[in-house]
Each structure stands twice: as structure tokens, then as C-alpha cells.
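Long-time lurker. I teach an intro course on protein structure, and each term I like to show students one example going from raw sequence to a predicted 3D structure in C-alpha cell notation. This year I'd like something fresh instead of my usual example. Would anyone be willing to generate the C-alpha cells for the chain below so I can use it in lecture? Attribution to the forum is fine with me.
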Amino acid sequence: MRIVKLDELQFLFCVKNKVWGSNRTNLKNWENDSLLIFKVDNQIAGLAKITGNYYSSEEIIWDNDLYKHRRPLKFLAIFKKTDRVNFNPIIKNILIKEWGKDYGHGIINAMKINPQNKELILAVISKKHNSVDYINNNVDVLSKIEMDNREKEEALFSKGLIKSSDMHYKKRIIDI
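-- Reply from a regular --
Happy to contribute to a lecture. Here you go:
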């Protein structure tokens, strides 16, 4: 199990295309059938299983970068925003046991989580309502809502009404 961090819109692009992408080649070393936890806004938004081998692609899926290093996924759980697992304090404490107080480096580098802590995290996740079918059936509508929210956020930022540290979305750099 590994944890990957991204914004809501990029998460929905992963859901729609059933793929994880990165600018790092370390995906080559990830095992098939291993699990990925998706961290969005300090919450667990989804759980997926890697279903195939590493590949590189120039196909544009995300609108904030190419992320040409990829692994195919099957989403096992996707949580509505109201049903997500907060990272504090239970998950945070598990990660502190795993990687120490600077556990963020483990997330940023998508480091592997040991089997005991994996089971603890899965136990917490399993208590939440899984909306995988609802999200898959509505991913285009939900993506449009998030695109609109990002545009509003970018407008507030450009007017100086919010700081970059308060932004939830990565800037769009590619038109898709």
C-alpha cells in the first residue's frame, strides 16, 4: 500500500481513466495488485488496486501536467466528500508510527506502507460508505463542478483575495 496526494479534480481524472500518473519513474518498481490510497484535501478519497504493468504515455489525461509514467488501476472504494476519512488523528498516528513525525515525506514519495499499518488503515476505511458506483456513474458531472470551482479559486487568487497556500487545486496548464 502507498499513499498518493492530489487535488479533487486530478483525482476524478484518475477515476475516469482508471490510471495513476506521475512524473517520477518509481512507478516501475510498484507491484501489481498493490493498493493506492488517494489523499485529497487531507482526507482519504479513494482506494485502488494496481491492475497492470508500468507504461509510459504521451496521452493527455490530466490538465495540470502530462504525468507520462503510469499504472492502470481498479478503484475498490471511492468516497463522497461527506463520507471521507480524515487524516487526523487516527491515520496521522499510523503514519507517524510508519515514518516518524515527518511522515509527509512518505506521502510525497509514495513510500510503501508495512503490512501491519496497511491493515490498520484498511480497517478504518472499511467503516465508511463506498460510493464507487455513484462516483463512476457521475464522474463527468463531478469533474465539471470541480473545474468550475477551480476557475472560481483562480479568479479569487488573481484578485489577491486568497493566498496560494489556501488554494485547493493545481493550476491548469493543459487544455483538454
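Some talking points for your students: The CA atoms of residues 9 and 146 lie 6 Å apart. The chain has a mean pLDDT of 92.
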